[in-house]
Each structure stands twice: as structure tokens, then as C-alpha cells.
UniProtKB/TrEMBL annotation:
Residues binding NAD(+): 41-47, 67, 136, 159-161, 270
Keywords: Mitochondrion, NAD, Oxidoreductase, Transit peptide, Tricarboxylic acid cycle
Residue ranges of every copy of the Lactate/malate dehydrogenase N-terminal domain listed in the record: 36-187
Reaction equation(s) it catalyzes: (S)-malate + NAD(+) = oxaloacetate + NADH + H(+)
Protein name according to UniProt: Malate dehydrogenase
Originating species: Genlisea aurea
Compartment annotation: Mitochondrion matrix
Lineage, opening ranks: Eukaryota, Viridiplantae, Streptophyta, Embryophyta, Tracheophyta
Biological processes annotated in GO: malate metabolic process; tricarboxylic acid cycle
Annotated substrate binding sites: 123, 129, 161, 195
Family: Belongs to the LDH/MDH superfamily. MDH type 1 family.
An MF annotation (GO) of this entry: L-malate dehydrogenase (NAD+) activity
Active-site residues, Swiss-Prot/TrEMBL: 219 (proton acceptor)
Stored InterPro entries: L-lactate/malate_DH, Lactate/malate_DH_C, Lactate/malate_DH_N, Lactate_DH/Glyco_Ohase_4_C, Malate_DH_AS, Malate_DH_type1, NAD(P)-bd_dom_sf
Residues of the Lactate/malate dehydrogenase C-terminal domain: 189-352
Length: 356
């Protein structure tokens, strides 16, 4: 058993190094700057595997795990893993510390370079992401108030749904606190990209590790717009196949919610996607060149104030929001159709902060 685990770890490390996506390019972990990553909602379905994956990332020197319950256990568990952060902290916390409840959020957040937020309720079958707004909007608002006070310079990776509204909520709360920097607020849409790559690789008969597919728009239903016309490697797929791939990417979250039958939504694939995205943010902060990922950010590439597209990440967060490139007629139609839904989700987030 141990030999199998070792061989899986060896293989995945090789693959990661080969694709340059995970481990840092250009310098070793020992030479990497100290970086504190904080996870708000760390004891949840996403939070726990995400905590594990961030503990495995050599770019992380200190991992802060915050939730309203259960984080001491998660921190004690993850803290015994002998990866990098042990080198940088005391013999008591091994680089990982759990914080519970509002009275500990200050300490949890102070000095954070990246704050990842998967706090909030997940969907059950029959619900839309917007149905989560009533509960999650308030959770996100209060957590961002704390970020604004205690780690205003951190890069925020927003996972909590509905992302199309929680990112605008976060922006308004940061503005009200006088600390908004649009370069530092990013809605995590990486799972849409992960799905688009996986589904495309199956149809295009391509090695999934080599596939690239941008996904733009937002993170709910038709607002998720995969641009298969820009996929690499190229494949000659029929309109029907491209339509089916688009639908499957848009409905990927619902596919998992239904399969889990009341036990939540995507957690493991989301933890993977969240870890990839946070790794890209850390690489950008550390000055690694040409780190480009899709994310839902403040944008002027369409008439909408927030939009997901490729962004270049750097030492200050978002260095550049990249344009959409050439779209097929089908994608152009998809773009026009998503705008009104995305606009109303954005507006709903903004007005929530000003009404509250
Ligand atoms: N962006 C994406 O692609 C994506 C993908 C999957 C899930 N999600 C969203 O992520 C969120 C979390 O999903 P999950 O499956 O981990 O849910 P979960 O219920 O398993 O975990 C949520 C965690 O948040 C914690 N929490 C609640 N209120 C909190 C607060 N005020 N402060 C700190 N922590 C708090 C809970 O205690 C719990 O541990 C959901 O909103 C879900 O829809 C987003
Ligand atoms: O679908 C959900 O509710 C969770 C998440 O947004 C996903 O895409 O899996």
C-alpha cells in the first residue's frame, strides 16, 4: 500500500513539474519567499481537502485555517504532514494553525498573502446557485469586513456561491472600508476550466494534461461560457459535439449536486481547482512571469463591471485582464445571451451591501 502511494506521489510530482503548473518554476521551495495562506471555511467539504492541498504546496510557509467550528482538529491533522511550512514555525504549530469563531479571525487573517474563501452553504438537488444568496451573502459580507480590517492587502480568492454575486458583494464591502483594490479580488472559476479541459480531452481524444480551454463569463448556468474554438490542441468537432460539451461544462456543478443526492456539491474537484488557482496567485506574487488563469474579476472587456476571462497574475495580483480573442458565432451568441443574467446577479450583490 505504502509503495502504491509513494509511486502515485512520485508520478504526480513528475507530471506537475512537467506541466510547470504546480511546483514553482525557476527556484526551489527553500528559496521561495515566506507566504501565509488563510482559508476561511477550512473545516468544510471544500475547506478540508483544500487545506491538505495547500499544505502540500511548497510555496506556502504558513497555513491559517479558520471556521466557525472544528478547525483545531483539521489544523492538528494537516499540521503533521512534513512539508515545507514546518521549517518556518514553532515546534507547537508546525506551520499550520486552526482558528475558531469571530474572536479569533483577527489573528487568523493578520499577515495573509492570500485569503481563500469557501465558507457558506452548498446546493442541494433542485437549487440554483442563486438560491444560496440568502445565506451566503451575509456570510461573505461579514468575512470580507474582517479581511478589510485585518488583511486588506491580501489577494482574495472567492469560492463561495453565488460567485456572480459574492464577488461584487466583496468589492462593495472593501470599498465601504476604503481598501478596495480591484487587482486583489478574484472569483474562482477554475473548476469550470478544469471541467472544460476534462470533457474536451475525452471528445478530442487528447491528453488531458496538454489541453487548454478558456472559460469566460461567470460561474452559474449559461453565464459559464467555455471557448472551445480557442481550445488547444485543435480538434475538428461537430457543432452538436461542441454544443454538448458547452452544456456539460455549464451543468457540471449540477451533475455533481445530483450525483451527491443531497450531500452537497463539488468538494474534491473544487479543492483541486482552488489549490491550482491559489498556486497561480502565489506564483504571480513571487514574480514568476506569464502566469495566466481565468477568473471572475472587475473588468472592462464587456459592458459588465465584473466578468470572467483570462487574467495575468503578478506581484500585485491581477496585472492585466486579457481580452476575449476571436469567438465563433455560437460563442458570440452565448456571450450575448449570458449578459442579462450575469448583470442581474452582479446588481443583486451590489444592492445587498447598500441595503443591508
Ligand atoms: N466557485 C466554485 O466553483 C465552487 C465550487 C464548489 C462549491 N462552491 C461553493 O463553496 C461553498 C462551500 O461549499 P462546501 O461544499 O465546502 O460547503 P460545506 O457546508 O461543506 O462547508 C462550508 C464551511 O463553511 C463554514 N462556514 C459557514 N459560515 C462561516 C463563517 N461565517 N465563517 C467561516 N466559516 C463559515 C461552515 O462551518 C463549513 O465548514 C458553497 O457556497 C458552494 O456553493 C463554489
Ligand atoms: O454547482 C455548485 O453548486 C457548486 C459549484 O459552483 C460547482 O460548479 O460545482
Amino acid at each position: 500500500m505504502a509503495a502504491v502511494v509513494r509511486s502515485v506521489l512520485r508520478r504526480s510530482a513528475k507530471e506537475k513539474a512537467a506541466s510547470s503548473r504546480w511546483w514553482i518554476r525557476g527556484f526551489s521551495a527553500e528559496a521561495a519567499p515566506e507566504r501565509k495562506v488563510t482559508i476561511l471555511g477550512a473545516a468544510g467539504g471544500i475547506g478540508q481537502p483544500l487545506s491538505l492541498l495547500m499544505k502540500l504546496n511548497p510555496l506556502v510557509s504558513s497555513l491559517s485555517l479558520y471556521d466557525i467550528a472544528a478547525t483545531p482538529g483539521v489544523a492538528a491533522d494537516v499540521g503533521h504532514i512534513n512539508t515545507r511550512s514546518e521549517n518556518f514555525l514553532s515546534a507547537d504549530d508546525f506551520g499550520v494553525k486552526g482558528y475558531v469563531g469571530e474572536e479569533q479571525i483577527k489573528e487568523a487573517l493578520e499577515g495573509s498573502d492570500v485569503v481563500i474563501i469557501p465558507a457558506g452553504v452548498p446546493r442541494k438537488p433542485g437549487m440554483t446557485r442563486d438560491d444560496l444568496f440568502t445565506i451566503n451573502a451575509g456570510i461573505v459580507k461579514s468575512l470580507i469586513e474582517a479581511v478589510a480590517k485585518f488583511s486588506p492587502k491580501a489577494l482574495i480568492n472567492m469560492i463561495s456561491n453565488p460567485v456572480n454575486s459574492t464577488v461584487p458583494i466583496a468589492a462593495e464591502v472593501l470599498k465601504s472600508n476604503g481598501v478596495y483594490d480591484e487587482k486583489r479580488l478574484l472569483g474562482v472559476t477554475t473548476l469550470d476550466v478544469v471541467r472544460a479541459k476534462t470533457f474536451y480531452a475525452g471528445k478530442a481524444n487528447a491528453n488531458v494534461a496538454d489541453v487548454k480551454v478558456p472559460v469566460v463569463g461567470g460561474h452559474a448556468g449559461i453565464t459559464i461560457l467555455p471557448l472551445f474554438s480557442q481550445a488547444n490542441p485543435k480538434a475538428n468537432l461537430s457543432h452538436d459535439v461542441l454544443h454538448a460539451l458547452t452544456k456539460r461544462t455549464q451543468d457540471g456543478g449540477t451533475e455533481v449536486v445530483e450525483a451527491k443526492a443531497g450531500k452537497g456539491s463539488a468538494t474534491l474537484s473544487m479543492a483541486y481547482a482552488g489549490a491550482l488557482f491559489a498556486d497561480a496567485c502565489l506564483k504571480g506574487l513571487n514574480g514568476v512571469p506569464d502566469v495566466v488563469e481565468c477568473a471572475f474579476v472587475q473588468s472592462n472587456i464587456t459592458e459588465l463591471p465584473f466578468f470572467a476571462s483570462k487574467v495575468r497574475l503578478g506581484k500585485n495580483g491581477i496585472e492585466e485582464v486579457l481580452g476575449l480573442g476571436d469567438l465563433s458565432d455560437y460563442e458570440q451568441q452565448g456571450l450575448e445571451s449570458l449578459k442579462s443574467e450575469l448583470k442581474s446577479s452582479i446588481d443583486k450583490g451590489i444592492s445587498f451591501v447598500h441595503k443591508a
